[in-house]
Structure prediction request, 820 residues.
Amino acid sequence: MVKYYPIEGNAVIGQSGGPTAVINQSLAGCVEGLLECGFKGKILGAHNAVRGIVANDFIELQNIPQDRLNRIAATPSAALGSTRDKPNEEYCERILKSFKKNNVRYFFYIGGNDSSDTCRIVNKMAKETNYELRAFHISKTIDNDLMCNDHTPGFGSAAKYVACAFMGDNLDNRALAGIKINITMGRNAGFLTAASVLARQSPTDGPHLIYVPEVEFNIDKFIEDVNRVYSERGRCLIAVSEGIRDASGKAIAIQLAEKVEKDEHGNEQYSGSGALGDYLAKTIKERLGTEERLGTDLRVRADTLGYLQRGFAGCVSKIDQTEAREIGRIAAQMSMSGNIDGSIAIVRISDVPYRVEYKRIELSDVAAKTKKMPQEYIIDGCNISDAYKKYVSPIVGPLPVIELLRTHRV
Amino acid sequence: MVKYYPIEGNAVIGQSGGPTAVINQSLAGCVEGLLECGFKGKILGAHNAVRGIVANDFIELQNIPQDRLNRIAATPSAALGSTRDKPNEEYCERILKSFKKNNVRYFFYIGGNDSSDTCRIVNKMAKETNYELRAFHISKTIDNDLMCNDHTPGFGSAAKYVACAFMGDNLDNRALAGIKINITMGRNAGFLTAASVLARQSPTDGPHLIYVPEVEFNIDKFIEDVNRVYSERGRCLIAVSEGIRDASGKAIAIQLAEKVEKDEHGNEQYSGSGALGDYLAKTIKERLGTEERLGTDLRVRADTLGYLQRGFAGCVSKIDQTEAREIGRIAAQMSMSGNIDGSIAIVRISDVPYRVEYKRIELSDVAAKTKKMPQEYIIDGCNISDAYKKYVSPIVGPLPVIELLRTHRV
Prediction:
């Protein structure tokens, strides 16, 4: 039997950064984990993450009936509200002050690498002032770019959305042939864009070309890739990461946004605009849509998957749900086991059967760092390998089955 | 017992225009209907619709095993391939010539109002030359804009996608407040955009503003609507139809495309570009993102739902599937009952319990006509009524359940 060493006081849970389809599973898991371990204090949900902490804006979570908690868990996007604030030292001091005032001894912060850094700073400050705080970072990001994690909660469901989107769009592009570009999320890591490869169920299926931020983007090579595929197949479906960057090292989307919005505040806007897709479509049309190349009636279109991919209602990976719940529960359990802190990482034990375990790592191992896609997942700078497919498939789970008409022509 | 009066010969089935998530249900239903009625000829699937007919490019469909036919039926997008060709008289003569050469006596054309017109013209030509042809149009369009139909196959699934997309995005916008625009399909009719209203499960849920092509779009009123909602709620989620047009009567998306692509062929491009969303977002930012109005840190984003909404794998309305199958089967049955032709329309018998019947109408009743949304579905030019919600709910079927955290603040 596990022995717990709780400290008297309250707990705070916050949800930070971009929402996911399973971020409330981690919230529910954390609440359940605390209660299962006999936690007696208040469980305070911070409204809009760190903003709620410093503004003393909390929602009590310890008395939610289980059926309601289950429905909240199954609802996409941060139930507590979120924020894009990245606290500096002064902000973190105000967070700690609020914790002391409210006798908060447990802090759970569900988020990406910025959030783990907030957690780390507040934790360090608490230690320096001999205030016992058990601070835990609970991984969450559709970008799948956290160090020490095989993958992150939220990624599997977003990857499933991307796969299903490309499955449908591949069939659309097959029925009405043309060149089609889909821009997917992923500022620094190409994991989510690469998940489009799951749409390929037969040899002729797209996406036929896949571009990720890990590979320097060259517009001339891109045009020649598209020309080659279209000339061979009479159609071309392309997955492009919003974060692709050219030789300058600067993301193309940012360069386009700067051209358009000179008067803005330097907020780097990748998503929420169709600019990157429209630019690529226009360039293809200009360079290939001539009589000498592919003909002036060349049909080129671009869609930007946008915000929908991170919380589409009803498109969720069951494994992702389970793991997100579990990671919250385990953070809570660990926090009750003694005066410790850290981040809970998912470690893969085996591919078949798919098995993972959860491991405590140091906050500094994950804080403010970014994991990129391994090079073995990338082929020729414009395609994704079977090794990646093997990696991602169990995280996404079963996909709709596609059946094509392949009977002989008359 | 029903008596059939078949005519010896073969059947052609084609799928035309933009694909849907259930267009292959109608294909399967039509094949099943013919075989169930004892049809003895060949069932020829026209590859890429009318293109395959004139090019003698067919796929035989009469021997597909039932389990495979079921999987094809469940696969989104036209299994036979599609086309955007709109045949003129000369083209239609070539279609009829192909029919005569292949002894085709049954013609089933799955498509929208353009397709029903092709069906009508070929049918008229056959009659004029005393060639017995039993020509049937099988309704299909996500736009839901066919006359004499309560609704059309394909619409329910696309509406479900739009509803789920807005449900997720409403929660996203709730968690990270700002102004968010989503552009949905619908060139002339606002039915699909209006389906975004289903995302509202609680009084504060978005979309807070909905703009359809049936209402003349005025950019000044739009800005004031957004200003009002954002000032009241601190956030604003907006659904905009790609087909909105201003006082000039010309769609804004077309006006923008003309500005950008002066060198193109006059093809009216609504989808496959983020231009309309980006223009609206930019205008909001310019007019409201000032210190005097909503502040210079105003967060405005736009996504364009694009092609994904018409065939997303795994997001389908069960009712839509059933009706699409049934309408194909009934067209086949009717064609076997005598020398008749027409289009099969869905007529609603009751809302609760939801019941429909299928009725043969004349091809000329539906051909080349467009149904608009009734005015009773539109409120104040920027919202959708409960009457519409009552109309659309049974067609879409059950949606994911959303549970919000509404416990009292501490």
